[in-house]
């Protein structure tokens, strides 16, 4: 069927596709490679236009820890991300189950409110919430970002609900007939089946907290002890100039946990991203 | 068996626990969250927008004073609102088109698809502060590799983050770099387009371009709309990258709340609406004005959300 011309056309198309594909791949990776190169340079070389390190200085990574409380920032960030994720799951999974699989008055209204909450720019509620937390004396810490997760997170509830809806009712019916209560059904039947969805929601929440800048900026900027890495990255500065080699080293370090987690659970993650794009 | 069958067929209806209390144990915390973190702060923001107050003294009713101030008297608010609008106009189409094109390119590949997908997605994982610092370095006039490369071709590169005329473009490039999440959504949507539609179209003699226009686009339009609306709301929110870029590019690299000192660098070109909302409150102590800006932001973002909700009844409709 395929004429030689058609085959040659197909081959050219193949080459063109991969040429564009590779060019784009280089553009997507170049900034990261450039950070890596800069992190290995001497402070003086970062102020020149030379791309390749004249000499390699992996000790910059150690220096980054010595010059700022980087370890403390990393610890704070982990604390924030892990507690927020744990609390979020405790409250969001049951809520998503109730929204996906139980019938009750006010369910649609609740779902609409949760979508509104998910879409609401954080700055809208910033001042009243800041005042609320100031009254509890918790401003200056990360708790105003962690404690609300005990009430669940709107985006996670939405994501989990979209996932749980796809589980056929038959499984729930079977559990019911076997005498499971609603909580028994959730814990013994739904949880094992929803593991990919829960993994995706947990990862999103972890990434969100890990990457969060606005929240820690709002609540902890006056109290360096409780800074997260995002805030701390901006603190590499000598008297006269930015220490680009140390900034680059620390900046790359912030990517490590995210990338490790991503490669450990890539499939669940991609599925989760797809789910957020909405199967309407 | 008949009993079981009839129970099964009742489906979703059957799963109504007799005691509403059971439902409450599931949804209770989320309802408290909606009350404390959505309803209360919204009502409070509306009330505070008519008052003068700071963190230490109780609010005093001043009527529309701050509304007048924000809408007509503060020139910086207008600059910030305009900047945010420009960002919406630049970033949302750039990211949508960029994601769609890369998704189509990758879907056309076979064996190498997932490798490329991972590579393209990687930047979307970079924390915003990390990505911003990388881009400021990359585009640094004088020593940055991009301008060095341009110089090889005899082109004098612009000042990027240091030039008020180029700062927004630089941030748009940064936004485009992180397009991977949207790309994955589009890849899935494109694969969902039924193959028969393409076959039928090509039997009818439709060209590739016509197939895209009359088959692909209409089929994926719900996903496109979702992406555009969430993109608009996300851009109305745009804060971190603009704040960090201003700070790092200005060479101040101020830390903590000191970063507000470099907001908008250079020459307010990167000052966004949420940044002005923050600085008018926490910087100028005009919390009444900050709440006026918050209420306006709320109205605009909710309008977009309502469009979304009307198009996607399935979001809230009965599950399964």
UniProtKB/TrEMBL annotation, chain A:
Record key words, sorted? Cell membrane, Membrane, Transmembrane, Transmembrane helix, Transport
GO cellular component assignments: plasma membrane
- Give the matching InterPro entries: MetI-like, MetI-like_sf
Topological type in the membrane? Multi-pass membrane protein
Instruction: Specify where it is mainly localized.
Output: membrane
Q: What protein family is recorded?
A: Belongs to the binding-protein-dependent transport system permease family.
Do you know which PROSITE patterns this protein is assigned to? ABC_TM1
Q: Where in the cell is it found?
A: Cell membrane
- For whether the record's keyword set contains Transferase, the answer is no
Q: This protein is called what?
A: Sugar ABC transporter permease
Give all residue intervals belonging to the ABC transmembrane type-1 domain. 74-265
Segments passing through the bilayer:
12-37, 78-100, 112-133, 145-164, 185-210, 244-265
Biological processes per GO annotation:
transmembrane transport
Q: Which domain of life is it from?
A: Bacteria
From TrEMBL, chain B:
User: What does the entry give for GO biological process?
Assistant: transmembrane transport
In its keyword annotation, does this UniProt entry include Membrane? yes
UniProt domain ABC transmembrane type-1: residue ranges:
81-308
Stored Gene3D superfamilies: MetI-like
Q: Which residues cross the membrane?
A: 21-50, 85-106, 118-139, 171-193, 214-239, 286-309
Pfam families recorded: BPD_transp_1
**Cellular component per GO?**
plasma membrane
What keywords sit in the KW lines?
Cell membrane, Membrane, Transmembrane, Transmembrane helix, Transport
Which cell locations does it reside in?
Cell membrane
Query: Topologically, how does it sit relative to the membrane?
Result: Multi-pass membrane protein
Record bears the keyword Repressor: no
UniProt superkingdom: Bacteria
The UniProt entry's sequence similarity note says:
Belongs to the binding-protein-dependent transport system permease family.
Q: What is this protein called?
A: Sugar ABC transporter permease
Source species of the chain: Catellatospora bangladeshensis
């Amino acid at each position: 069927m395929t004429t030689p011309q058609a085959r040659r056309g197909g081959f050219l198309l193949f080459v063109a596709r991969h040429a564009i594909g590779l060019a784009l791949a280089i553009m997507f990776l170049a900034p990261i490679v450039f950070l890596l190169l800069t992190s290995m340079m001497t402070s003086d070389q970062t102020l020149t236009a030379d791309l390749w390190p004249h000499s390699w200085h992996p000790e910059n990574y150690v220096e980054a820890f010595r010059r700022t409380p980087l370890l403390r920032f990393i610890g704070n960030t982990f604390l924030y991300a892990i507690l927020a994720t744990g609390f979020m799951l405790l409250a969001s999974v049951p809520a998503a189950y109730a929204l996906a699989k139980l019938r009750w008055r006010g369910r649609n209204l609740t779902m609409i409110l949760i979508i509104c909450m998910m879409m609401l720019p954080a700055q809208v509620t910033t001042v009243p919430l800041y005042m609320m937390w100031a009254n509890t004396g918790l401003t200056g810490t990360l708790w105003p970002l962690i404690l609300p997760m005990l009430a669940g997170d709107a985006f996670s509830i939405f994501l989990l609900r979209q996932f749980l809806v796809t589980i056929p009712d038959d499984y729930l019916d079977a559990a019911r007939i076997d005498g499971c209560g609603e909580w028994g059904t959730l814990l013994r039947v739904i949880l094992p089946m929803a593991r990919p969805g829960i993994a995706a929601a947990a990862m999103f929440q972890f990434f969100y907290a890990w990457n969060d800048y606005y929240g820690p900026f709002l609540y902890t900027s006056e109290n360096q002890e409780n800074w997260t890495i995002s805030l701390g990255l901006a603190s590499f500065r000598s008297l006269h100039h930015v220490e680009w080699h140390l900034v680059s080293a620390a900046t790359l370090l912030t990517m490590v946990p995210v990338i490790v987690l991503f490669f450990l659970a890539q499939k669940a993650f991609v599925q989760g991203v797809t789910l957020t794009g909405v199967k309407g | 068996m008949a009993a079981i069958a009839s129970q099964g067929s009742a489906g979703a209806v059957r799963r109504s626990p007799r005691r509403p209390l059971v439902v409450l144990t599931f949804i209770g915390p989320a309802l408290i969250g909606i009350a404390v973190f959505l309803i209360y702060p919204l009502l409070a923001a509306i009330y505070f927008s008519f008052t003068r107050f700071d963190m230490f003294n109780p609010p005093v009713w001043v009527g529309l004073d701050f509304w007048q101030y924000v809408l007509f008297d503060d020139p910086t608010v207008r600059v910030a609102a305009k900047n945010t609008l420009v960002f919406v106009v630049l970033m949302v189409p750039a990211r949508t088109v960029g994601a769609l094109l890369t998704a189509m390119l990758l879907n056309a590949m076979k064996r190498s698809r997932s490798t490329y997908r991972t590579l393209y997605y990687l930047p979307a994982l970079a924390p915003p502060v990390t990505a911003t610092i990388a881009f400021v370095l990359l585009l640094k006039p004088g020593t940055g590799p991009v301008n060095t490369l341009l110089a090889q071709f005899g082109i004098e590169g612009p000042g990027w983050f240091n030039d008020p005329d180029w700062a927004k473009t630089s941030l748009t490039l940064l936004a485009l770099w992180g397009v991977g999440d949207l790309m994955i959504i589009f890849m899935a949507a494109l694969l969902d387009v039924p193959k028969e539609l393409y076959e039928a179209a090509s039997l009818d003699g439709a060209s590739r371009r016509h197939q895209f226009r009359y088959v692909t686009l209409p089929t994926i339009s719900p996903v496109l709309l979702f992406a555009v609306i969430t993109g608009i709301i996300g851009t109305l929110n745009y804060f971190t990258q603009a704040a960090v870029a201003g700070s790092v590019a200005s060479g101040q690299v101020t830390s903590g709340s000191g970063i507000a000192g470099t907001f908008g660098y250079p020459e307010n070109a990167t000052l966004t609406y949420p940044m002005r909302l923050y600085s008018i409150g926490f910087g100028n102590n005009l919390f009444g004005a900050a709440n006026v800006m918050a209420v306006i932001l709320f109205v605009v973002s909710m309008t977009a959300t309502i469009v979304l909700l009307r198009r996607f009844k399935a979001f809230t409709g009965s599950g399964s």
